[in-house]
Amino acid sequence: MPSRPSRPRLDDVASRAGVSTASVSLVLRGRPGPSDATREAVLRAAADLGYRADRTASLLARRRTQLLGVTMDVSSPFHAELLEDLQAAADERGYDVVVSPLTRTRDERRAVEMLLDFRCEALLLLGPTSSDAALAELARDHHVIAIGRRLDVQGIDVVRAADDVGVGLAVEHLAELGHADVGFVDGPRGAIASLRRHGFRAAARRLGLTAYVLGGGATEEAGQAAVDGVSSTTGLVCFNDRAALGVLAGLRKQGRDVPGEVSVVGYDDSPVARLATIDLTSVSQATEP
């Protein structure tokens, strides 16, 4: 395999333009000093050589990287929407985003380690699952923001929706439709599922409804398995939209009419929930009105 040509350096531009490297640096940084002729010569030489400034080296010399590290679950449509908004906000402020995904074979610890290797200036953890102790240790040496999870850990800023309130609104919606028996298709073990479960139980108790919690998860498969054999409950609130899609599939497999016989409410209001072929009622966590 032929070797790749070396990347043009600052002194290559200086040699081509017939000026000092100091003059090249001033021109490329837009600083005053060099004459118009020198500027023109430097810019022409840089274009001819295909020179591109090494932004990383420059930032490291100033002990800055201007990188924000983000961990996200690649299977979560909501995380994908959040990432788009985070990138837009970072662009406005002159930062870049480095994404480290969580997958079936890659946990949060490994995802965070990769971001630290990139010397990210801050870590934004979407729906973090690490223990409070692990997050506290991470926050001792790094700027950490937890998004979507309730935490009371020193050194960590938290941005989240009121999950318990959101699920409570879903229960109220089912009660208004006339449902007296309601169920909650639970999520995976963790703080977010716990808070949504608490909101479901509190709302059902306040409204005098018969309430059930069904073992579930965060995937379509978990949602479908959760309603296997369930026949009495006519109103279901699901941990997220993916689980709700599985619930819809499971109910229709049983021959039950949705929404005629059973009402299903998801959580996240993801793009797939808005499809006309799905038309899933869902609790929105929209970052913008």
Defining key terms:
289 residues; alpha/beta; 434 Repressor (Amino-terminal Domain); Rossmann fold; 5-stranded parallel beta sheet; 10 strands; 43% helix; elongated
SSE layout and pairings?
Blueprint lengths: L9 H8 L3 H8 L7 H14 L5 H7 L5 E7 L3 H16 L3 E7 L5 H10 L4 E5 L5 H10 L1 E5 L8 E4 L3 H14 L4 E5 L5 H17 L2 E5 L5 H7 L8 E4 L2 H13 L9 E6 L12 E4 L5
Parallel strand pairs: 1-2, 1-3, 3-4, 4-5, 6-7, 6-8, 8-9, 9-10
Provide an overview of this structure.
43% of the residues lie in helices and 18% in strands. With 289 residues, it is α/β, with parallel strands linked by helices. The chain folds into three domains: 10-53, lambda repressor-like DNA-binding domains (434 Repressor (Amino-terminal Domain), Orthogonal Bundle); 61-159, Response regulator (Rossmann fold), CATH 3.40.50; 163-284, Response regulator (Rossmann fold). The strands form two sheets. It has a five-stranded parallel β-sheet with strand order 2-1-3-4-5, with helices on both faces. It has a five-stranded parallel β-sheet with strand order 7-6-8-9-10, with helices on both faces. β6, α9 (191-207) and β7 (210-214) form a beta-alpha-beta unit. α1 crosses α2, α1 (10-17) packs across α3 and α2 (21-28) packs across α3 (36-49). The longest helix has 17 residues, at 191-207. The radius of gyration is 26 Å and the shape is elongated. The mean pLDDT is 88.
